[in-house]
């Protein structure tokens, strides 16, 4: 068995998740990343990681379908054994997600359920099952959003799921302390170049106007912080929410 560290990064194929995967790989971590349907983009990220001299595998995963998680983790187990020469994951980054821009009066039950399944139920049960394959002393980083602190029109269903992730992370940190596992939240503001954020000149100008550092966010603003949280320098950070917004709505 190897002492090499392995991270499972959901939605690690593009956008913020891609930056997280690359930044972790730059710190010497091997990567098991997931994508939903865009295999081509996932394979490009795998190639970028292997070019850094690290191992990487891309697996498909739909986090809205918790009934698929047992099958997913049987594939993970196979790859841990055959590709990574281990049976344990060290880091879980719950990043996969979409967004929704709909007023409370317009939000449909189907839209609400989708937000709940991908951003809340999926994260809860994927983490639960991942813990069966997790090293004691490992780290969990959940990706939330600035909108769990500050509200804008149209974000309610999305934001309330992210708010629940902030709460869930504190509970995880408390319950998993006995295994030496820490759990933290990273809450980015508007990140352009990540596909989940609608990108228009009007939205960009609104975001810049509300941001102390006067620009919009990019995926490169996020991955390094997640990699830091998985490093030994961050060993005493636990149960915390770290906002990455350049100072939005201070
Ligand atoms: P992207 O759209 O760039 O990437 C989303 C990733 O998640 C892709 O890998 C995608 O796979 C995967 N994915 C999408 N749907 C599912 C699903 N049902 N099951 C499993 N995986 C899925 O998103 P971002 O990088 O912008 O966002 C990543 C995370 O960051 C999300 O949780 C989002 O809520 C959060 N966030 C984003 C912000 C932003 O402004 N962009 C701000 C704050 C938080 P595929 O390529 O196959 O579709």
Q: Can you summarize this structure?
A:
Helix content is 39%, strand content 17%.
Q: What is the radius of gyration?
A: 17 Å
Strand order of the largest sheet: 3-2-1-4-5-6-7
Structural class, please?
A: alpha/beta
Strands, count: 7
Q: For the report, how would you describe the main beta sheet?
A: 7 strands, parallel
Mean pLDDT: 97
Low-confidence sequence ranges: none
DSSP helix fraction: 25-40%
Distance between the termini: 48 Å
Bound molecules: NADPH dihydro-nicotinamide-adenine-dinucleotide phosphate
CATH architecture: 3-Layer(aba) Sandwich
**CATH classification, class level:** Alpha Beta
Q: Can you identify the CATH superfamily? A: NAD(P)-binding Rossmann-like Domain
- The dominant shape is globular
> How much of the sequence is in beta strands?
15-25%
Number of helices: 7
Order of helices and strands: EHEHEHEHEHEHHE
How many separate structural domains? 1
Query: CATH fold name, please?
Result: Rossmann fold
């Amino acid at each position: 068995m190897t002492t090499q560290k392995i991270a499972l990064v959901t939605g690690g194929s593009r956008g913020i998740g891609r930056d997280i995967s690359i930044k972790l790989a730059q710190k010497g971590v091997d990567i098991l990343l997931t994508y939903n349907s865009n295999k081509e983009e996932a394979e490009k990220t795998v190639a970028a990681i292997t070019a850094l001299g690290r191992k990487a595998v891309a697996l498909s995963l739909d986090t809205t379908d918790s009934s698929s998680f047992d099958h997913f983790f049987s594939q993970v187990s196979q790859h841990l054994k055959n590709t990574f020469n281990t049976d344990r994951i060290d880091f879980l980054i719950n990043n996969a997600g979409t967004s929704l821009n709909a007023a409370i009066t317009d939000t449909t039950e189907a839209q609400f359920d989708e937000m709940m399944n991908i951003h809340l139920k999926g994260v809860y049960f994927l983490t639960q099952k991942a813990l069966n394959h997790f090293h004691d002393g490992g780290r969990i980083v959940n990706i939330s959003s600035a909108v769990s602190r500050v509200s804008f029109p149209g974000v309610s269903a999305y934001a309330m799921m992210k708010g629940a992730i902030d709460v869930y992370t504190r509970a995880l940190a408390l319950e998993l302390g006995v295994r030496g596992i820490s759990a933290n939240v990273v809450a980015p503001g508007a990140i352009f170049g990540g596909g989940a954020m609608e990108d228009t000149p009007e939205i960009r100008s609104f975001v810049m106007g509300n941001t102390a550092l006067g620009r919009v966010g990019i995926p490169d603003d996020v991955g390094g912080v997640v990699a830091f949280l998985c490093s030994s320098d961050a060993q005493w950070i636990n149960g915390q929410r770290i906002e990455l917004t350049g100072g939005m709505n201070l």
